[in-house]
Design goal:
Number of strands: 5
Order of helices and strands: HHHHHHHEHEEEE
Largest sheet: 5 strands, antiparallel
Distance between the termini: 95 Å
Number of domains: 2
């Protein structure tokens, strides 16, 4: 038995769009799996809880996941564009503008004015065909007149079938293309946002060595060095609550060690009895340290 001929014309074009949406969905899912598998999700645990980098990483990962879901939803929306019937096209008022124009073109309607008229003519041709076959049913003798009537009915039905098939295939392509054109803008926008989210997540979840050192607890040393510490505005904002004193003045402290992020310091109780002992790593954006 010979294989059926492949679809051609509008049907083939609509199928091609659906296939593109399907393979884009599969490719996206594969890329997402590789990215998730290759991302250092465990690095989130190395970030300081409540830190800016942790919240940026969580937000970026959420953004990438939401945008990926939106892309998948758009592809499914295009791939699942339903087939339509004459009854639906005749009764539905919610049709894309391109489809509306198609349904007003006499070339696709076999010379009729609208799809409702085509549907009515098609149904009437079926009724005439059924009536012609019923009139010629045994024991009635098949005369030339009955045969001509059956032939005319078959020609009408075949003609309307061809008109309806051509119209529905063109509508199917036009509807799928309409969805694809609108989904394309969402796909591009969501793709860019998803890529930005993945890149931002990778940056936030993989801090440089000095940033990692600033979140680690430094080891205590045996020979601390007395220092004078002048906090920057950023340092004052971060430490004033912990110190419980005026953090805008020079403060006495002890340097316990040097780290890649800066000196490991302890602000001691001041001569006037103010300031609570507070330990932190003095990065250049937090403090200036002098011995």
């Amino acid at each position: 038995m010979a294989d059926p001929a492949p679809a051609s014309g509008p049907v083939a074009a609509a199928d091609q769009i659906r296939q593109t949406a399907k393979w884009l969905t599969v490719s996206l899912a594969s890329i997402a799996a590789v990215l998730v598998g290759g991302s250092q999700l465990s690095d989130l645990g190395a970030l300081e809880r409540g830190s800016d980098r942790m919240w940026i990483a969580v937000g970026a990962l959420t953004l990438a996941a939401v945008m990926t879901g939106a892309i998948l939803a758009c592809n499914v929306w295009v791939a699942t564009t339903p087939a339509h019937t004459l009854a639906f096209l005749a009764g539905s008022k919610r049709k894309p503008g391109a489809v509306q124009q198609l349904l007003q073109d006499p070339l696709f309607l076999g010379g009729l004015s609208d799809v409702a008229e085509l549907k009515e003519a098609f149904e009437q041709a079926f009724e005439e065909q059924n009536a012609a076959y019923a009139a010629a049913a045994p024991p009635v003798v098949l005369t030339d007149q009955l045969l001509a009537k059956i032939t005319d009915a078959n020609v009408k039905v075949t003609g309307y079938q061809q008109t309806a098939a051509g119209l529905l295939s063109s509508v199917s392509y036009t509807w799928v293309a309409w969805r694809w054109q609108r989904a394309a803008w969402v796909l591009v926008g969501c793709g860019l946002l998803a890529a930005a989210g993945i890149a931002l997540f990778a940056w936030a979840a993989n801090p440089p060595a000095n940033a990692k050192a600033s979140t680690a607890t430094p080891a205590q040393v045996d020979a601390p060095v007395a220092v004078s510490v002048m906090l920057t505005p950023a340092g004052q904002e971060a430490l004033t609550k912990a110190l419980g004193c005026d953090a805008a003045r020079p403060l006495k402290g002890l340097k316990l060690a040097d780290t890649p992020a800066g000196p490991d310091l302890v602000i001691v109780r001041q001569d006037d009895g103010t300031c609570s002992p507070t330990r932190f790593v003095a990065g250049v954006d937090w403090a200036t340290v002098r011995t």
